[in-house]
Fold this protein.
Amino acid sequence: MKIKKVLVSQPKPASDKSPYYEIAEKYGVEIEFRPFIKVEGLSAKEFRQSKISISDFTAIIFTARTAVDHFFRLCEEMRISIPDTMKYFCTTESIALYLQKYIIYRKRKIFHGNTGKLDDLLPYLNKHNKERFLYAVSDVHKDDTNILDSNNINYTKAVMYRTVSNDFGPDEAFDYDMLLFFSPSGIASLLKNFPQFEQKEIKIGCFGPTTAKAVRDAGLRLDIEAPSSKAPSMTAALDLFLKEETAEDCAEQEQ
């Protein structure tokens, strides 16, 4: 089989039961985990340049646990005391429960949706429309605030962290037969690290339409795309690709 070494541009799974490990054993391929991007928090000095005063707000909107981490980090660095009356609006229950890392959960007013979308929070936001909302985001984020604007929600978007390229070291080997990406930022990082990158026989796979567009816009060939009708996940798409390639190899050997 031509695919011997696969780079997954994500952090290494926390569990040994990840489907990636099963695929590696099933097809005898080596799978490495190496994020092409990483998150950096804005410093207190950088955040102050936005002229946003956290103390002016009575409620916070969180769409990611990373946003929770950097909000409380900045508050600590700037010595801002968050009042017990602060309300928290989270797009999922897991994000809401993550707040326990920083606050006494049962003593706070916390609301959450189920789908991960702002639309799901709308009933709570409208019910508390007298609040002044701070929306904590990354410098690269989905611009989904139309729903807030159309419902006259009083909010201010605050960039608290940024996505940057996770550079490869000069002695770091780049000998992969396949690269798997999960965001347009990963493609940008690939081209930043390797300006003279030539795809040739290297297979490229991605998850999501925006990442697929970034691959094609970069003039690269997209060999694996998920989700699809046959492969709802990246691991399913990888398994399907390797299965088909193994079958082709067997057919060639029989000829």
About this structure: The CA atoms of residues 194 and 238 lie 24 Å apart. The two ends are 16 Å apart (CA to CA). The longest strand covers residues 155-165.
